[in-house]
Design a protein that fits this description.
single chain; alpha+beta; 4-stranded antiparallel β-sheet; disordered N terminus
Length: 175
Amino acid sequence: MSEIDTDADADAEPRTGAPAGPGRLVGRFPLSWDPVVGRAARLFGVTPDCAWVDINDGRLTARFGPWVTATDLANVASAEITGPYRWWKVAGPAHLSLRDLGLTYATTAAAGVCIRFRDPVRGIDPIGAIRHPSLTVTVADPEGLCDALGHVSTHVDAQRFDPTESVRQRLTQGA
């Protein structure tokens, strides 16, 4: 393992390590690239150079072309490996689930990590009007990301929004 670079540049090597904490630098987890899904993402400005998850200095930052989601690690409630997905549901730009307002950054249909947050985060829109209770990212090393987040999990954590609450209520309440 090489020295950890604190800059979030495109040349950063993928790294995994001990669970992240405040002030701890873990590194970058690039997204996995599938020929079909990855090609569709490229049409929206998503390339391997700008599709990754960084865990640096107590923060989680996920980039998917022009879309960026960032939050403190303390806001991560759980992380679980999910998938496979239907390629036509994940191909292309960032995806917003109308069911629960979850956000997906996908470049493969094979597997990913669903990261759930204690407080919803910004992501799909530039002004942050829509907040997301979860983010699914199709990183090349899903187990490593879960481990780095300190959430090796095969089940959904109970830290979720009430599924009976409508999307309209969540949008109008800022949740």
